[in-house]
Amino acid sequence: MSVRITVSLPDELVAAATAAVAAGEAASVSAYVASALREKTERESVADVLAEWLAEAGPLSGDESAWVAAALARSGLES
């Protein structure tokens, strides 16, 4: 199910969404925005799980931190 809403966006974000549609990278501006919101929600969910795990297990060792940084770099998820 989809719900129609109205949002205001900065000009540069509208231009990026429109360009993505024109380049065939998204079916529509709505699909582009929905994809961006989905990705943000997934990132926040992963961050919540990691924060909970760290609270229970304690901080990562240096080797573990290096492994995580390398894995995130390979995945394109690092921020």
Automatic annotation (TrEMBL):
InterPro entries: Ribbon_hlx_hlx. It comes from the Bacteria. This is Toxin-antitoxin system antitoxin subunit. It comes from Nocardioides baculatus.
